[in-house]
Amino acid sequence: MADKQAEFLKIYDDTIHRDGAKNLRDYLLKSDFFRAPASTRYHCACEGGLCDHSINVYKRLLENVRREYGDNWQNAVSQESIAVCGLLHDLCKIDFYKLDYRNVKENGEWVKRPYYVREEVLPYGHGEKSVYIASSFMRLTREEAMAINWHMGGF
Questions:
Q1: Vertex 41 angle, CA 35 and 42, to 5°
Q2: What is the pLDDT of residue 44?
Q3: Among 145, 153, 144, 143, which residue's Cα sits nearest to residue 128?
Q4: Closest Cα partner for 81 from 136, 22, 21?
Q5: Which helix (H) or strand (E) holds 30?
Q6: Which pLDDT band holds residue 125 (cuts at 50, 70, 90)?
Q7: For residue 155, what pLDDT is reported?
Q8: What local confidence, expressed as pLDDT, does residue 152 receive?
Q9: Which among 5, 16, 21 has a CA at the least distance from the CA of 135?
């Protein structure tokens, strides 16, 4: 988990330089962002999964942009925008999950097993909430805000 946090922060520090980036970074460090899961039972449903998932999305987005635009990809999309969209698309999941326990039968015995449940503190929608959180620290371009807001698709 510490390795993923260090990787996330390196990408963040190397690419995101706009006003407010440091304050958002401090917020992430104080929050559960680096410990939280990305989901309750699907992708990266484990401690630190949100950070891991965000890095994966950033890398996939960068790969797709490079493939789409070729050698001159940075003329089309800045690396900062790719980092903003990829790394910050799921800020809505900060303080969103809590650890709970349930009984599970294993080998004929009941045992308590941990799992994550949703605990919505700020019910503001998925993509909209991520845009809201990021925008409260730094200015997003219109394209970044739309990409983050609609990262789950148009539904």
A1: 95
A2: 77
A3: 145
A4: 21
A5: helix 21-30
A6: low
A7: 47
A8: 64
A9: 21
Write the pLDDT tens digit of every residue in 67-122. 999 999 999 999 999 999 999 999 988 887 787 788 888 899 999 888 777 777 77
In DSSP terms, 112 is beta-bridged to 103
Tell me the residue length of the chain. Answer: 155
User: CA torsion 73→50→119→130, rounded to 10°?
Assistant: -20
Confidence (pTM): 0.85
Block residue for tokens 């845009």: 131
Cross-strand pairs, 118: 97
CB 90 within 8 A of CB 130: yes
- Residue 28 sits at the vertex; the CA angle it makes with 32 and 124, to the nearest 5 degrees, is 75
Contact 24, 137 (CB under 8 A): yes
Beta-bridge partner residues of 114: 101
> Given phi > 0 = left and psi -120 to 50 = alpha, else beta, which region is 107?
left
Cβ-based neighbour number of residue 27 at 10 Å:
17
